[in-house]
Amino acid sequence: MAAREWNPLDYDVEEGEEEEETPSPSALSSPLPYFDRDRHVAFLEMMYNLMPYHYQSQEINRLTLAFFTISGLHLLQALDRVDKERVADWVLSFQAHPRSKAELNNGQFYGFHGSRTSQLPPDENGVSAHNFGHLASTYCALAILKNVGFNLSTIDKESILISMRNLQQPDGSFMPVHIGAETDLRFVYCAAAICFMLEDWRGMDREKAKEYILNCQSYDGGFGLTPGLESHGGGTYCAVASLRLMGYIEDDLLSKNASSSVVNVPLLLDWCMQRQAADGGFQGRANKPSDTCYAFWIGAVLRILGGYKFIDKVALHRFLLTCQSEFGGFSKYPGTLPDIYHSYYGYTAFSLLEEPGLNPLCAELGMTDLAALGII
Hints:
The protein has helices at 37-49, 62-75, 84-92, 135-147, 157-164, 185-198, 206-215, 233-245, 265-273, 294-305, 313-322, 340-352, 369-373, and strands at 361-362, 367-368. By secondary structure, it is mainly α. Helix 10 (294-305) runs parallel beside helix 12 (340-352). The protein starts with 36 loop residues before the first helix and ends with a helix. One of its GO terms (cellular component) is CAAX-protein geranylgeranyltransferase complex. Pfam families: Prenyltrans. Its EC number is 2.5.1.59.
């Protein structure tokens, strides 16, 4: 592909990408002292109606940007601002389709393209030689469809699921696209979420995926993105949420017999609790600054485990407000400009905190409970 496909599990830019120069806090207005839902709705409505020029280089990830926008509006109880039927038709237009069932085992993945940029037209013989169906884009597509109340039983799920097994590797991990790319917990999670939303597990070998996940748990209790890597908030979320979706761990483990769990729950809980910093925010790794998005990545893990009650909610609420923009949306750090990624995970964090005016969150799928249950 012409550009690296971004996905909703890319967490942040501290993994080697260059960050924009941080404006001084004095250059920005003081943070609002309360969660301003109306400003956030206006921020997302702008994203729904146009693509700001800052995001034009991310056009290949248009489905991901749409997921943040539409699911964000649903969290904010403002789904009435969305033309649901039009959105569903638009999303469905991105699915790749084989010419016949025989092609489902040709090594390609017949999921969803991230945008028109990767959805190249067929040749003069009607052959789509360039199929760039992507796991993360497929997760986003299905999540959007659930958010707008579309009946997923009516889509061509067989093409998605059977061809998705082409992406699973011998060690249980997944590539995001059939032409080859990195394999790590992000795409195991995408595969698990896709199967869960489609209510059909033909798309993956769950036992192999489970073993890969367990091999990613580090000595300190957290999970690295691949076996042997440093524990990471996003990787830990992908591991725990995947195991929950696949049925290998129960909800609210701490109220049950955690000693029989497939993961080391006490170590995992201890690692997660250590991620809340002195400023009240959550860090993604040890010795890193607090970052808005980890209030979801770590907070959702704690919610699944039953340990969310142990965090300092008042301090977290206070930290998140310092990242809230007067224009709506949230920034990565206090004193910087908002972006759609950190805005969405700011909304999910406030939903976990049970902020009035927000819909409850399904922690495992990263969307509202209503969307997860199909109640729109």
